[in-house]
Q: What sequence folds into this?
């Protein structure tokens, strides 16, 4: 929030707001917010971390603020990255130019677990594989952002972005009157339009869009039903769909109804038991045949995961240069790949300074935060890395920026990250905002809710 | 609408109505048990368990039908799929599955009932009066019902909810009346006596229809009048006639919306016609218990036809 001693301008008014709010009022509001979350039933683990489906994620009332100019630059960078990621996907399921040009090693692509041979040679409608790209960012300086991770499959948490805003507006209407905050509530409409814009070639009418969920036991079920509700589309499970002839149909009280676009929130492996895992009950037998023959669109497209792997991540700036002929606006965190001898040597020599992550890990598990780890932990991790170097990457601990956050004693700085949601269809669009996650423990760099992280509203101020 | 969604809505309604009936049964039971002269012949709580169709499950678990055990079984017990706690939990779970088909108010009513239930379960049982439990159940059931009526789109989902309510209510009215059959009078000459009438009046009270009955019939309370009220009177909100007319009108709305009829409409129409041609004398000639059992079976048949026509998604 501060620039030297001075409050950064986007936060100027919030300083007064905090000053003017007595502690009792703050506690009352905090309790009110929690009651609202519980009543609405927003109880799910962000980013598919599992756990108790009735658990609440802590909500911090102190918003995170971006100026319009800061956001404009971020927005350009995110859109650029989303375009490059999609170009990469179309390329690697097609001619594989980037591999032939030697800009990314072939094995990282073609031996990747997420690479789906089943869609090789297939170009989805409008050339889009990843329709909702969630890009995780951290800030390290006034004008310096780094990308931590790309999520090209089914990034979750967008319902938090919308509900956090809803609850802030309900509790602090005066803040919204005093500050000119860009709205985010057009997201569901943009999502619906994005999905409709990638209707399959055989669709000759207003497309029928559905959301495919694994079911109400899934930790993100609230989000699935929330989005279906706001878009006015059916929320289906695999058992509601069937394939007949050239199309996919859903079972309705009026008989079968054709489905054109499926926004799936289940993994590739469960989509079609005839094509992928035969024992899966979540998907629809025969779905992939209909998909490949242009009878239905699947969002994100099967196979999109090959672009968001932690090892492939290191090549995204290269993708931007290769496909777009531009310099990347957003940088990657410098990353050492333990699979490469030179990098491995460096990592082993500097373990206590680094953050080491498993290539396929998520949720803050399977990682080493060097500066916070005991020497035993470091040694244990060293052994794990040596065991399977290709499974690990390492990054420096960045001087992450903090934002003011309500804690027991008042307001204190806490580390945050940001996940904006970029929509890619006929057009590429981004609502001004995203999900800010905050590490509620003092000094902690880990924002995952399973590790004591919370969420807060994200503001972009109108210029 | 998805068949699965319609099915879940249908069952939300059935569970909520069933929870209410369990509470009403508890109320009838406690009132009948308060009548001293019936003692010594039969434990009235048994009749209640039989009418609710939970007698076997109860006997296996508790054996002795004392009030406290009955309360546990009919209100709190999760092993009893018809207990108030089971019904409200199931209704809320179904609601969670079909959040998209419910308004915030309906979800709020379902979810609040569930949260309050969990709080009740944590209270010491000695602090919980039976009347508090039954009133709590009826209040929450009314809140859900009211939220549905006040806020839900009048689309197919609303029809399936109402069909669920009416079918369950018909079934429950029949079962509540059957309690009277199971409560044997000490001797045949007690028929028409003060005790007999007290039992019939208790039945009316349990359906919150005591005063309504007097407005509709005036004066004297007789078995025939009460049976007429609960079976054939269109003014009575819980009568079999009202319920079957309700089912039929919602099925007709569906047929109009979808532009096609199914076997369900025909079956509902036939049931209604049969009731319309009936007098209370004929019911007693057949035997009240026999008539009620037959009604419960017809309602179950209609349910399975509705399931095949709309809720299974099998229809092409």
A:
């Amino acid at each position: 929030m501060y620039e030297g001693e001075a409050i950064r301008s986007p936060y100027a008014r919030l300083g007064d707001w905090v000053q003017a709010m007595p502690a009792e009022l703050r506690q009352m509001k905090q309790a009110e917010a929690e009651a609202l979350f519980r009543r609405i039933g927003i109880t799910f683990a962000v980013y598919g971390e599992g756990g108790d489906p009735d658990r609440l994620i802590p909500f911090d009332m102190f918003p995170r603020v971006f100026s319009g100019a800061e956001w404009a630059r971020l927005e350009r960078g995110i859109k650029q990255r989303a375009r490059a990621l999609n170009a990469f996907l179309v390329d690697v399921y097609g001619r594989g130019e980037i591999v032939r040009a030697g800009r990314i090693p072939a094995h990282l692509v073609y031996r990747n677990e997420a690479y789906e041979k089943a869609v090789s040679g297939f170009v989805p409608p409008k050339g889009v594989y990843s329709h909702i790209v969630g890009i995780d960012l951290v800030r390290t300086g006034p004008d310096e952002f780094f990308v931590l991770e790309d999520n090209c499959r089914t990034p979750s948490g967008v319902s938090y972005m919308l509900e956090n805003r809803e609850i802030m507006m309900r509790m602090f209407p005066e803040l919204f009157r005093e500050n000119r905050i860009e709205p985010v509530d057009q997201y569901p409409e943009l999502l619906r339009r994005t999905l409709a814009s990638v209707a399959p070639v055989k669709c000759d009418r207003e497309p029928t869009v559905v959301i495919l969920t694994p079911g109400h036991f899934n930790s993100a079920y609230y989000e699935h039903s929330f989005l279906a509700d706001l878009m006015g589309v059916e929320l289906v499970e695999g058992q509601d769909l069937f394939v007949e002839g050239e199309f996919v149909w859903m079972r309705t009280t009026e008989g079968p109804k054709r489905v054109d676009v499926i926004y799936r929130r289940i993994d590739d492996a469960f989509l079609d038991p005839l094509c992928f895992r035969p024992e899966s009950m979540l998907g629809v037998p025969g779905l992939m045949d209909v998909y490949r023959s242009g009878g239905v669109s699947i969002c994100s497209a099967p196979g999109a995961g090959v672009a968001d792997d932690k090892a492939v991540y290191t090549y995204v700036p290269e993708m931007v240069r290769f496909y777009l002929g531009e310099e990347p606006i957003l940088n990657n965190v410098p990353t050492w790949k333990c699979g490469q001898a030179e990098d491995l040597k460096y990592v082993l020599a500097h373990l206590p300074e680094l953050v080491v992550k498993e290539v396929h890990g998520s949720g803050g598990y399977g990682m080493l935060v060097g500066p916070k780890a005991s020497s035993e932990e470091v040694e244990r991790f060293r052994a794990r890395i040596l065991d399977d170097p290709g499974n690990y990457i390492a990054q420096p601990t960045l001087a992450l920026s903090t934002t003011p956050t309500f804690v027991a004693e008042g307001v204190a700085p806490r580390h945050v990250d940001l996940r904006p949601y970029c929509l890619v269809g006929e057009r590429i669009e981004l609502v001004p905002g995203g999900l800010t996650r905050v590490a509620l423990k003092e000094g902690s760099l880990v924002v995952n809710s399973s590790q004591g992280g919370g969420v807060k509203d994200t503001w972009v101020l109108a210029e | 609408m998805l068949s699965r969604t319609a099915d879940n809505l249908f069952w939300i309604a059935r569970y909520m109505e069933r929870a209410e009936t369990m509470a009403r049964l508890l109320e009838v039971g406690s009132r009948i048990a308060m009548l001293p002269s019936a003692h010594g012949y039969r434990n009235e709580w048994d009749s209640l368990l039989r009418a609710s169709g939970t007698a076997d499950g109860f006997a296996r678990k508790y054996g002795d039908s004392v009030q406290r055990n009955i309360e546990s079984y009919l209100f709190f017990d999760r092993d009893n799929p018809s207990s108030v706690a089971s019904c409200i939990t199931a209704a809320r779970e179904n609601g969670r599955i079909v959040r998209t088909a419910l308004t915030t108010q309906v979800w709020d009513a379902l979810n609040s009932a569930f949260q309050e239930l969990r709080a009740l379960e944590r209270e010491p049982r000695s602090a919980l009066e039976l009347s508090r439990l039954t009133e709590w159940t009826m209040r929450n059931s009314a809140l859900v019902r009211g939220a549905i009526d006040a806020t839900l789109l009048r689309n197919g989902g609303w029809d399936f909810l109402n069909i669920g309510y009416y079918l369950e209510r018909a079934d429950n009215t029949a079962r509540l009346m059957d309690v009277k059959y199971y409560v044997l009078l000490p001797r045949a000459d007690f028929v028409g006596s003060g005790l007999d009438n007290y039992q019939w009046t208790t039945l009316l009270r349990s359906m919150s229809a005591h005063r309504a009955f007097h407005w509709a019939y005036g004066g004297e309370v007789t078995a025939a009048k009460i049976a007429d009220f609960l079976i054939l009177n269109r003014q009575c909100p819980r009568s079999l006639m009202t319920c079957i007319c309700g089912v039929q009108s919602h099925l007709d709305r569906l047929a109009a919306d979808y532009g096609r009829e199914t076997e369900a409409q025909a079956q509902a129409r036939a049931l209604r016609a049969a009731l319309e041609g009936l007098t209370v004398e004929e019911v007693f000639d057949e035997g009240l218990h026999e008539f009620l059992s037959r009604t419960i079976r017809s309602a179950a048949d209609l349910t399975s036809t509705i399931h095949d026509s709309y809720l299974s998604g099998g229809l092409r």
User: Anything to note?
Assistant: Residues 3-33 of chain B form the longest helix (31 residues). The two ends of chain B are 15 Å apart (CA to CA).
